[in-house]
Every structure is written in C-alpha cells, then in structure tokens.
Amino acid sequence: MTLENVEPNDRVIPKLAVSKLAKSYHHRCEKHVKLVASKSTATSGANMGPLKEAHFQRGYQFEEQVAESFGAKLVDHTHTSPSMSKQALRDAQPGQVLYQLTFEMPSKFYQEEAGNAYQLGRFIPDFLFVHKDTSSSTGKRICIVDAKSSKAMNTSHQFQVASYAYLLGYIVKDVRNIRIDVIGGVLLPFSKEPEMFRVDLLLPKIELFYTKELPDIVQDKKIHWLFNTKCKNCEFVNICREDAYGTPGAVPYLTESRLKSLSPPEEDDISDIEDLVDHLSSLTIQEKRQRAVPSYMASEPEFSPYATAYRSQKPQFRGNPIVTLAKSNNHDIFISLVFDPMFSRVCAYVIRVYDLQSNSWCRDLECSFHVSAATRSYSRFIELDANMVQDLAKVLSSMETQKSCCTIFVSSNQVKDQVQKCCLRITTMDPADEDDAVDQDTVKKAMDCLLALFQDSKMLAIPGIAEFPADLEHKVLAPLVVDIEQLVRENVALGVPGFYSLKSMARWMTPDHEVMSDDDLYQEWHTATTDTVMDDLLMAQADMLRAIVTKYRSFASSYEDTMGKQIYCMESVPFKWPTTKHFRSNVFGRLAFFKIMECLSGCNNVRSSRLLDLTNSSSSSSDHGIKLQYMRCQVVPKSSGKPDYQHWFKAIPEGNVPIKLLTDNLSKTSMREYLLVPNDREGMMQAVQFPDLAFRNKMFIKYPINTVNVNHVSDDGLDVILDGYTASPKLEKLQYYRLYKRYVDFNTDKILDAMLQIDQRENSTFEQLVTDPNTWADTLLEDDDAMSSDARATALRLRDDFKMSPSQKDISAQIIKKRLQIVWGPPGSGKTEFLALFINWYIMHLYKKPSNGQFIIGVTAFTRHAIMNLLQRIATVRQRHASSESFTIISMEGYDKSQKTSEMIQCKANKLKSTINKHHGPVVVGGTVWDWYKVKNEWRTWQGCSMMIIDESSQLLVSDAAVAVDCLDQKQGRLIIAGDHMQLGPILHNKYPKLPASDPLLFGSIQQCLMRTEDNKAIPPQEFLLRKGTTHDFGPNTIQLKDNWRMNDELNSFFKQIYGHDLAAHYPKRILQHDWQKWKMGNVSQLEAALDPKKSISLVKVSMVDGMTEEEAEAQVIGKLVHAHLTIRMDPTNTQSSQVKPNVMIVTPHHRQRVAVERELEQWVETKNQVTVDTVEKMQGQESELVIACFAFNDVGGNKIDFLLDFKRWNVAISRARSKVIIVTTDYMLNLPKNKGHNALDLFEKRESAEGWGFVCLLQDWAKKADAVVDWSIKQ
Fold first, then answer.
1. Which terms are listed as keywords in the entry (predicted)?
2. Interval 844-859: pLDDT, tens
C-alpha cells in the first residue's frame, strides 16, 4: 500500500466537479480526487490529448442526438439561471423532460454536511424525467437520467446519477410535492430506453462520500493509491508514473489483492508524498533506479527481476513457460491501426507479413487503407471495414495455400478487439439497408475470419448466422492472434511502473526504433496532408512490432540454451480455414455454437490449474493441482483375473488452502478422470500439453499420459488412494507428484447431433416453440375437440378429490386449455406435489386413449434425483387415490441402481419400447434428457409423448431441453414446465451477448426462454424485489403457485416482498421449540438471543479477533449455535414436521467455509446425521427447520462481490428454512457500500448483485424491526 500527500499545507478550499469525482470512482483512486482538488496539478500536469478530446466530442454529439429524440416533451433549460432551477422544478409538468437544468448547492449544505472542506461546482444533470407521483394527487417524481457514449453502464455512471439524486434531494427537501425518484438511469448508444438502476440503494454510500470520505481525502495528507493498469486512461497518468518510483506501483501490473498479500515492514510501510517527492528529486538517476522497487518486494523472487531491470536498465527474461506462442513459425503477420473515438471506428490500418525463412517482408501481401479526417463518414468507415476483411482474408488464404504455420501479432488487446469488431460489424449489417450495403462475398469472408481467429460468444449476437464450426480442435495449439503487450508482460521484466505501453516496450526492447504514441498517431491522422503519411507511419510501427517479437524470441532461445530447459509449451500447425456445418435454422445453429462455446470454456477452466502451476502463479485459491507424496502400493487380489493395484499417497498442503478443501472435491469414478505427473516443470508441461478435448468422451483406452482413478480419500483429506495407474514410469517412494482433473464431457456431441437432426425437419416443434411460445401455447389440439365440455366440467369439479388448493385448481384449469404452461413455483410452494396431483387427476378424469394407441407422459428434470423424486410422489398420490384407471410408472435407470423401488418399473432407455408394449393404458416415463435422446434414436417409429413435464426447468439449458421437447408428439403434445427463475439457474462457463427483446433467450434456462410478454418479447431483466403496490408479470403462459407449504408466517411474510403479497403460509405456527433447562454451559444470553424461536430471522454480527481467520471465527460461532440448538431442541408434536429431514442446514457460499464448519462440528457427536453442511448450489431443493447462512466476511472485492451478492444465491440460502434462519455475518458485510474505498460501489454495476444487496438490506431492516440483531464477540 502506498499513502501519499499531494496537497501543500496552505489551506485552500478546493472546488470540485461531480463529473470529475465520478472519474475518481471509475479509476477507484483517492489520489485522483486529491489531484482534481489541486488546481496546480490539475491544470498543468493532466494529460488531455487528442484522443480524449475526441471522446468528449463524441459524448457531446450523443447527448444532443438524445435531446432531439424527445421532440416536444423536451424543455431546454440551457440558459436557465441556477437561481431559478428550483422554480423550474416546481413549474415542470408530468410527461416533460427537463434538459440541461443547472444547479448550485447552497452554502448551508457545506456547513451542515461537508464541514466546509470543499465546494462543488455547478452541476447539470442531462435529463430530468418528470412523472406523476401516484402517492399524492399533486406530487411529482423526478427521475434522473444521464447520457453516456459508452459501451455499457459502469460504476462511474451510477455514481454520477446517484450524486445528482443525493444533491437534488437536499435542494428540494423543503419543496412540497416534489421527490427524487428511487430509480435512475443511463442512456447508452444503440439503446432506445435508458438502463435503469436502484438509486436508493446507492444513496447511503453517496451520502457517506460527500459528508465524510471526501472531506477526509481533501484535508488529509495521506491517501491510498496504487499505480497499475487501471491508470492507463487517466488524465494524470504522467504525474503518477513519476510518483510511482519507490512505491509498489513501480512493479508493473501489480493488483490490489496481490499487494494485500505482502507484508511490508513497519518502518518501510508508507511514505508521505511530500517527503517522497523531495527525496526522489534529490537522488541521482542511478540512485532512483536502485530504489525504484521497495526493498521488502525486491527480495521476493516474483519481483526481483523488476528490481534488476531498474538497476541495469536492461530487460530481464523471467523464464516462465510460454503458452501463447509456438517455438517455430513460417510467417508472422502484423496489424497496426489508428482508432477514431469520434466515430468509435478504425480510421487507418496496415497489414504486413514477414517471411521467417527468407527473413524478409512479403511485399505482395502488404495491405493498407485509411479514411481521411476531412472526409470521414459512416459510409467511408463501412468501406474501411470491408477492405480490412478482404485484406485479412487474402493474407490468410495465402497462408493456407503455402501451408504456413503463422501468427497474427497486434500491439494490445484493444487492437485485437477492434479487428474483431470490424468483422462483426460486417456480419451484422442489414442487407435491406442501403447504407449498410456490403456484398455477400465480403460478409462470408468476415464470418470466415471470425471463425478462424475469434471463436467466442460475441458471434452468437450475429443475426441470421447459419454456419458454425464442424468440429472442436483436438490439439493443444498456440493462439492464432497474439497480443504483444500480454506476451511481453508474462515473461519480460522492464523497469516501467504500472503497465507497459507500446512506447515503453519499444524503448526497452528495440531502442533503435522510433515509436509514436496513440495520441501522436491520431494527431498525425488528423493533420495528414498526403495519402501516404499514415501508411508510412503504420508500416514503421509494424516493423517495430516485428523487432519486439524478434527480441522476445531471442530471449527465449538464449534461456533454453543457457538453462537447458524447454520453454515453449504449444505447437503450431499450418493454417486452414475451419470447416463448417450449415444449419437451416438460426435457432439450432446458435444453440450448437453455444454448446461448443460452453465445452471450450469448461475445458479451459479445468486446464487452468495446470497453467497456474506451470507459471508459478501465486494464489490463495484452490485453483491449483494437488501435490501428492507417494507412500506405498497395495495389491488387492480379485476372485478372477488380474489383481488391482492401489497406490497410497499423502496429500501435501500448500499455501493457506486447507488440503481437505482440495481432496473433498475429488470424484470417485472409474473413468480415469485424473492425470498424475511428476511434481516438476517437465511433468506440469506434460499435463498442459495433454489434449483434453480429444479424449473428452473416451473411456478405457490408452492415453498419451498417465491417467488414474480416485479410489478413496481419508476423512481428514490427507490420505489419497489412486488406482488404474499403468506403472510406467514406475512410481518412486517418497517422491512428489501432482494430480490434475482432466476434462470429461459425454454430452456435447449428443446435443450437437440432436441439433443437426432436429434442424433437418420441416416445421420443427421446438423451433416453433422457442420462436413464438405464445402462438404455440394457444394451438388447438385434437383432443380439445374430442373432450366434451361436460367432461371438462366434471373433471374440474373433481379436483377437490385430490385436495387441491385454490392456486393448484387455477393452474390445473389453465393447463387443459393450453398446449404450453409454465408453472412458477416459489420456494416451498409444492410444485413437485402439484405435478404429481395434476398427473393423477388428469389420467383419472381426462385421459382418453389417443388414436395412435399410446398415451405417454414424459417426465424429465435437471437431475436424476429430481426425476425420481417426482416419480415417487406420483406413485404415492396414485396409491392414495387408487382407481380402475390405473397407470404404469417407468423409470429409465442410470448407472446408479440405488434408487430402485417397487412402485415403478425400471428399464434402460434402449428397452423402453418393448417395456411399454408389455403394458396397457397410460404410462408415465421418467428419465434424463440423455435417456430421452437414446429413446428417440432407438425408437424410430415413435410418434412421441402426449405430454412432457420438465421439472427444475429454471436449471435446464435451452439446448438440453430441446432433446426432451423433441420427444413430444409433434402435433398433439402438451408441454408443462415447472421451476423458479428467481433461484439459481444453469451454470454457464461464458458471458453471452445481450440479444434484442425480439430474440428468444437461448443461452440460459428453458423457463426463462419461454416466458414472454403478450407481444412475444423476451421478459426483460426485472427487479426481483417488489416495490409497494406492484406485482410480477411474466407473460400469458406463466402462472404462479401461491401456496407456501414450508415456512411459518414470519418467513412467509418476508418472502411476500419477493414473490407477491398473495403468497399464503399453510403452516403459520411452525416454530422451533427449546428447553433451556437442558443447557448446562455458559454464553446463554447470546445463544438465547440468536436462537429465539419467536424471531424467525436473526442476524448474528461476528466481531473477529486477531490471529483467527474469517472461516475459523465463523465456524466457532456456528458450532456453538448448532450444539446449543440440538441440545435444547424439543421434538415438535405437530405432525406437520414428521418427515425425516435434517434438523439443521448450514449453507456456505464457499467450500473453504464448509470445510471449516465441518471441522468445528466434529467435536459434537450429536451433530451427526442431524446437520447438513454444503454450498448454496447443493442445497437448492432441500429444506430444514433451522438454516444457518454463512456470510461472515471482512474483505469482499473483485469477482467476490458478484458471487456473494448474487440475488439468487441469497434467495436460495434463506428460503431453505421452515421455522428459523440465522445469518452469521459481519458489520463489513452489512455495510458494504459504506466501506472505505472506491470499489465500494462495484456491487451496483450488475443488476443481480445490486438486487442481492437489496436483499441484504431487507434482511437488515427486518431483523432490526424485530430486535433480532445479535452482536457476537469472540473471545480467545
């Protein structure tokens, strides 16, 4: 950490702009605030180059375009004096949009709120939408919306809008009938509607910032800052680069999290900037270099090469294995370009090819094009895009012709993105738009380039795409496009603070080459007087890129020669355009490519642990291989055949990751899911080079690497028994090895095959369903005609025989009217019970033998456990309501035979036809989508199910559900899906593009995909938390079960805020029962307060002590709560709770917490079989009388925020409880937005985490009102 003083001692009250403070939040930097407040540095040292000027101009243009779009509703206040702004708000009428209304904070604000520490300049919200306030007959709501010419809404935008809301709230606090809306928004290009967010959730942090944090920053000498990649585009980058010498920021690419893991000595910890600047200015250049990296870091092996680079002024090769570049190539291709922020387009480019055999440029393949600044227009930029695509395709076709191994090099990831966007723009142009006119040959070449170079999820946003890769690449290859900054960053230490720029890399690695900055190039483009100026400049830049790559290769070769170690991990193969498959339907093509993307990303996730180990990446996470020490071999005789050889290993802990955390996740199967290699560089390289994709669906074959099975893991996680080892090479006793999981996937190929088969059919049911579920749902079925109105009426009257609730009756009546019905089942609503009741009721009263002679109701779900649970429930209801119209229940069995039951027939999927033919009457068949895939392939003449029921539909992917839907009778089949999209959905390995509302949501759950508005638009992201007086509307095909068969009245009342006010608790008096006379230990007051049965939601705030980790402290509290509850618990006499279920459920977000809790509970004998401890994902669908949710964290940042504050994760964790839930947490977690630091608003950047924070706020408010907040201080 580095603390600095930027401000001189003379007290000057700074004047700050809200927009500038928003920039500080963008950079997450207190020093930025300090520099903004310092007039001298802000005016003299700030870097405001041509690129930034162009970006601002683009913003102004966008704002004007937005203003024009409002037409007569717009009231322009550009010339309204700030003194009249309050009156302008009074005069404003609902429906108007106020534009450019200027405000000024009264002096009273600074006295009351800011301690006169600063002043704010005039601020001008872009647009103020005036709405009628429904809570008052004459009131108005002012909704603040800002226009931003950015790609997406970010934290700085939200900070600015929320700042306006806070400041305007102060201004109008004494104005009757005007209030600031709790919702604000940001208007972005290419979006007709503003992106809205909850301003009220941000206001506590905003208020804290303006009343405490900002005064502290501008008045305090010492502030926190770290110079790193976040500073790249900051206007003060040049100032801070010089200040970074002697601070941790002297080491490039250092992150805040990595810095926190270091422990600087007290005397070397933090320095005052005045002292630092004065001291550095008195040093010679050589002394400055000697002390660039702080001494406590320079001694670390990870950072010592940088200290050496500073001292020697020479690049230092770090010797990390190279995974981004192959050792040998035939050709290197270089792309240089200039970007115009005004149009957000490439305005000039050059492509050059270097022949590594002849060491010369291929002049015949050189390509260039530019749009002059004077003639730039939309059509000219389209022309440039088309030319770049044609040129790139020409070069790559030449590489294919020459069978060349080649690599494309770009200077940075930003350049790589621009090349990809160029290709994407060509493929997404509307052929009907004359302005977008591009010939089909160019469009095809753009698609070819994307498939060859940029196979990622962005391609799924291309409308009408029908060509997708035919196969997955089986070899482990170096990437075709390489970002030089990333290449150098991974393996070359330069004496450059913060981050590498092209200029710094060139100065250090190719000092003979002149290089221009991006600003310089853009300025040259603006002022170019001849057509050759930009070509010459970009040609020179390409030559400089080649020189950097050449220098890098020479470093690597020298290292290999000197150290005698192999350093290149990846191979290259001659370039070939990828082969593709053509899909008739865009729906199936997209789904196939989606599954390929998921497969590739899933494989990369599995392989990441090998790369981390190989590159010696320090990490406190569990994302590494498991280090094992070989102990002995045990021969296990068999009754026949060869004996089994079991190899015993000792698991070796590394870092601060509990070894049980790693070994608990080992899968015990016979599919050879693990690789075992020596624990050295060569072994890890062997693991990295293993082609997982080639063997992803292979079993019991000879692998090119040693594969093993995990046979057994001891309870403490320290002993691991492996079998299946081939004994070559021979394992050596006491030697160390490393165990890695390999990627296994038997299903992707099945889905791809199914997509191709379904795509070949005319009028596919599934395509009709996902394209327009509303129309499909209302399709008249033949059995509707055959079923008399009297039969319907009789059946509806007989629902009472099944003791259906009013909600269940309503849904039953709706289902028989429609072909599609979505049953939305909140937690505890009994959707499985309802499905069982409905099936029995339907067969008993509405079943009519179909014309094809078979009436089959198919059942599937995300897990086989859920399928068996539903089938058993159907059997139970059938037994309760035995009738002459009996039916057969068949379960298609999997590998696990433990779930066999006499209530149903078990058969393999390929035997279903013969099994059904042995029985007469209706049949209910349950199986996974993969079972149904086999049935469809084996039973070629089958017309399909009369009805298909998909349970857990919120967890089943659209692509996987397609297999089950394809098993419906294409003309007569009904589809019923049940689930809760507000609980955890499918696990996705990728982020997918936002699609237009008119497109089906194909890249998620089948439930979310089929929920449409009346006009067949995808249901937009909605607020999970209901505002007062509102209800959820998820389209005409969705009906909610409104029963709560799980929770007591208080818990049900809490969840009404999420699921609607008509949610009804059927067991309102279900509470814990305790006898405290059984408790013989101390600490009674805390335990009584936390376990109080009359308070169904309690918050336990844990105060940590030094020397104890978060997990240990949390586990200690949970251990005492569980022990106390099980000791004093009285068995309820109420038969409502007679089912055998765990008495306590402990829900943890992380496996690390689970391990700590399990370890703590081992000392209490009574916890066995009565307590379940697992992660949120494993708890979905379960319930318990007492739930303890573990959220005791004192440091949450980066990806942790998205994970921990995901609304669905909180919803699942809390909704497992029948009688009581205890949330074990900390003050830090309960005050996340108020915590110190500019990343405190990160939780509002994504809707899911913002809603998650809203959920936490609801819990806090609820517990406070009930006096159910318990402060728990841990004593050592």
1. ATP-binding, Helicase, Hydrolase, Nucleotide-binding
2. 888 877 766 789 999 9
Distance, CA of 1144 to CA of 1219 (rounded, Å): 11
- Tens digits of per-residue pLDDT, 732-756? 999 999 999 999 999 999 999 999 9
Contact 316, 492 (CB under 8 A): yes
Per DSSP, the three-state class of 153 is coil
**CA nearest neighbour of 463 among 434, 424, 416:** 424
CATH number for the segment(s) 15-219: 3.90.320
* pLDDT over threshold 70, residue 1138: no
Alpha carbon distance 1126, 1128 (integer Å): 6
CA atoms of 997 and 1013, how far apart (whole Å): 10
Pairing of strands 923-926, 888-892: parallel
Amino acid type, 1272 = W
Half-sphere exposure of 407 (CA within 13 A, CB side): 22
Q: b/e string for 1152-1162 if b means 16 or more Cβ within 10 A? A: bbbbbbbbbbe
Domain boundaries, the chain: 15-219, 256-268+278-314, 331-497+505-579, 595-629+647-747, 792-896+909-986+995-1020, 1064-1132+1139-1273
pLDDT at 271 over 70: no
What residues contact 896, with CB distance under 8 A and at least 6 apart?
864
Q: H or E segment at 610?
A: helix 586-614
Q: Distance between CA 233 and CA 842 in Å, rounded?
A: 65
The strand ranges marked E within 734-862 are: 736-741, 820-824, 856-860
Per-residue pLDDT band for 267 (boundaries 50, 70, 90) equals very low
The single-letter DSSP state of residue 935 is H
Q: Which fold has domain 1064-1132+1139-1273?
A: Rossmann fold (3.40.50)
pLDDT tens digits for 8-34? Answer: 445 678 999 999 999 888 888 888 888
Residue-wise over 1116-1137: b if at least 16 C-beta within 10 A, else e?
bbbbbbbbbbbbbbeeeeeeee
Tokens of 180: 């600031």
Indicate the pairing of strand 15-16 with strand 119-120: parallel
With the C-alpha atoms ordered 423, 427, 433, 438, is the resulting torsion angle positive or negative? positive
In sequence order, the 6+-apart residues with CB closer than 8 A to the CB of 1139 are: none
DSSP E strand stretches across 853-958: 856-860, 888-892, 905-907, 923-926, 947-950
What was the pLDDT predicted at 471?
74
How does residue 789 score in pLDDT terms, banded at 50, 70 and 90? Answer: low
Strand partners, 551: none
Domain 792-896+909-986+995-1020 and domain 1064-1132+1139-1273, same fold? Reply is yes
The C-alpha atoms of residue 942 and residue 935 are separated, in whole angstroms, by: 9
Environment class of 549 (CB within 10 Å of its CB; exposed 0-12, middle 13-18, buried 19+): buried
Instruction: Name the phi and psi angles at 707, rounded to 5.
Output: -115, 145
Tracing tokens 């405190």 back to the chain, one arrives at 1240
Q: Does 1136 score more than 70 pLDDT?
A: no
Which residue intervals of 1092-1168 are DSSP H helices?
A: 1110-1128, 1151-1161
CATH class of 792-896+909-986+995-1020: alpha beta
pLDDT recorded at residue 25: 80
Q: Which residues of 334-370 are buried (b: 16+ CB within 10 A; e: fewer)?
A: bbbbbbbbbbbbbbbbbbbbbbbeeeebbeebbbbbb
Strand-strand pairing, 1064-1065 and 1043-1044: parallel
Give whole-number Cα distances, 1260 to 202, 978, 1191, 1255, in Å.
Answer: 16, 31, 13, 9
pLDDT of res. 349: 97
| pLDDT tens sequence across 417-466 | 999 999 999 998 876 665 667 888 999 999 999 999 998 888 888 877 77
Q: Is 1063 helix (H, G, I), strand (E, B) or coil?
A: coil
648: helix, strand or coil? strand
